[in-house]
Amino acid sequence: MARIPYFDMAEAPAELRAQLDGRPPLNIYRMVAHGGATAQGFLALGSSILRRSSLPVTLRELVILRVGALCGSSYEVTQHQRVAAQAGVPPVQVEAVLEHPQGSVAREPFDRIECRVLDFTDAVVRQVKAPHEMFDALAAELPHQQLVEIVMTIGYYMLVCRVLENFEVDLEGGDVLTGHAPWTEILRQN
């Protein structure tokens, strides 16, 4: 049960309601709505990451799932397992990303770039700053925009996990998403 009551969305400012229009009624939105103007920034950045990032959607989802696993956020992992599946991330990769949050990700189901991105994700989550050689190796393979987007995705989803875990946001029941196609819409726009 959430640590504070969910925000009454009928009381939300018009700008926030407009940002949420067409999105499923997820509890995370009902919690961050308490943040006023910061909720709007939170939603805008999340939307940019999910809808306008140049990262391949499968790579983005691997990063998000790994951050969720490292942060111990079952809500985040559960929601993005759905997104990852619809994005075409093979189940074996999802399982590997979620295994051993205290250790490294297995190498077997991933290609070279995926391994580097996942190692980089682990380093940024655990140490804040990736080692120089790790950063340089990834920077040599990705455009600068994608490198920045990876760091921003890691940081944003660390924030998401901290909101979810500190406020103990409840996972919605399966029927909450009926009638909404957020993941399909997100994938179509990538």
How far apart lie the N and C ends?
34 Å
Give the total of beta strands: 0
CATH H-level superfamily: AhpD-like
Mean pLDDT: 90
What is the correct CATH architecture? Up-down Bundle
What's the SSE blueprint?
Layout lengths: L13 H7 L6 H6 L4 H15 L5 H15 L2 H14 L3 H8 L13 H16 L4 H8 L4 H23 L15 H7 L2
Helix pairs in contact: 1-3, 3-9, 4-5, 4-6, 4-7, 4-9, 7-8, 7-9
Question: What do you see in this structure?
Answer:
- It is a single chain.
- The protein is mostly helical and 190 residues long.
- It has one domain: AhpD-like (Up-down Bundle), CATH 1.20.1290.10.
- The protein has 10 helices and no strands.
- The longest helix has 23 residues, at 144-166.
- The relative contact order is 0.17.
- Mean pLDDT is 90; it is low at 175-190.
Summarize the structure.
The chain is mainly alpha-helical. The chain has ten helices and no strands.
Which labels suit this protein?
190 residues, mainly alpha, AhpD-like, 63% helix, disordered C terminus
